[in-house]
Write a structure and sequence with these properties.
The complex is a heterodimer. Chain A is mainly beta. Chain A contains 1 helix and 9 strands, in the order βαββββββββ. Chain A is elongated and about 80 Å long. Chain A starts with 5 loop residues before the first strand and ends in a 14-residue tail after the last strand. In chain A, 28% of the residues are buried. Chain B has 3 helices and 8 strands, in the order αααββββββββ. In chain B, the strands form 2 sheets. Chain B has a 4-stranded antiparallel sheet, with no helix packed on it. Chain B has a 3-stranded antiparallel sheet with strand order 3-4-6, with no helix packed on it. The longest helix of chain B has 18 residues. The relative contact order of chain B is 0.16. Classes of the chains: A mainly beta, B alpha+beta. Chains A and B meet through strand 2, strand 3 and strand 6 of A and helix 1, strand 1, strand 2 and strand 5 of B.
Chain lengths: 127, 155
């Protein structure tokens, strides 16, 4: 059976019971033979506003947009302006010590390598 | 000889259940999310509609649009007859050709948004900046459009 990066596996109802002040960032998740790549959209968040915490095999991504000073009045508002947060359960095959992250124009790129032990490897047959 | 002992697959491993509860979660979320998020969900059908704010102070209109993960040169801003247009194309930063896709929520492709400004702006003084995935456009009002203080002298 293939384990994936699962979404929000913590007790879902307890989480939702409290009013959710967070925006859910949109993500793309890919798996390659070396590991996983996760991309999360957090416009307005820079390196300093990003917090990634790991508890066992649960990873929490939190992004706080940098404060914007806007004078005058607001004529039209669509942006949520909330902090971003999303929790993922990690495939146990991921080597959590080697997880790396970078931020580019409001998109978080998270690289989650698989540990060497679980990578598929070719066994050479000797005569 | 077996290297690993064969085990009868247990019910919890059956993929159907996971899928089903995922679907239920999605439906739950749909009903519980605020309206703004619902309209965002509909972008699956209609393409990408970047969220946008418009502010006004004494001298300027300020438009802020959320365009995460773009390249500066792929953003086009134009002003025509008092209508501001923001358009462009978002391309995937990295190609994942031999990768398996687990989630694909981000939108790639063309988008366009237009805003009709409530007063005249000086087209040659418009400034745009792109930082942390947010595009900020500052449009100075023309002298005629600025609010004026009129001193009335009372004798």
């Amino acid at each position: 059976m293939k384990a994936l990066i699962q979404n929000d596996t913590r007790p879902a109802n307890a989480e939702r019971a409290q009013a959710n002040p967070y925006a859910t960032p949109e993500v793309n998740i890919y798996e390659t033979k070396d590991g996983y790549v996760l991309e999360a959209e957090m416009p307005g968040v820079n390196k300093d506003g990003l917090e990634i915490t790991l508890e066992g095999h649960e990873i929490t991504l939190t992004g706080r947009p940098a404060n914007e000073v806007v004078s005058g009045e607001t004529l039209f508002r669509e942006r949520l302006g909330a902090d971003y947060r999303r929790v993922f359960d990690l495939d146990p095959a991921i080597d959590t010590a080697r997880i790396s992250a970078r931020m580019n124009q409001g998109v978080l790129f998270l690289t989650l390598p698989k540990s060497e032990a679980v990578k598929p490897r070719k066994i050479v047959v000797s005569e | 000889m077996n290297i690993v002992k064969w085990q009868r697959p247990t019910l919890t491993n059956w993929p159907g259940f996971g899928r089903l509860s995922d679907l239920r979660d999605e439906i739950d979320r749909l009903f519980e999310s605020p309206l703004t998020e619902l309209t965002r969900t509909s972008q699956l059908l209609s393409g990408w509609t970047p969220a946008l704010d418009v502010h006004e102070d004494k001298n300027n209109f300020i438009v802020k649009a959320e365009l995460p993960g773009m390249k500066r040169e792929d953003i086009e801003v134009s002003l025509h007859d008092g209508t501001l247009s923001i358009s462009g194309e978002r391309k995937a930063e990295t190609k994942h050709e031999d990768a398996e896709v687990y989630r694909a929520e981000r939108f790639f492709g063309r988008f366009q948004r237009t805003v009709t400004l409530p007063a005249a702006v000086a087209a040659d003084k418009v400034k745009a900046a792109y930082k942390d995935g947010v595009l900020t456009i500052t449009l100075p009002k023309t002298e005629e459009a600025k609010p004026k203080q009129i001193d009335v002298s009372v004798n």
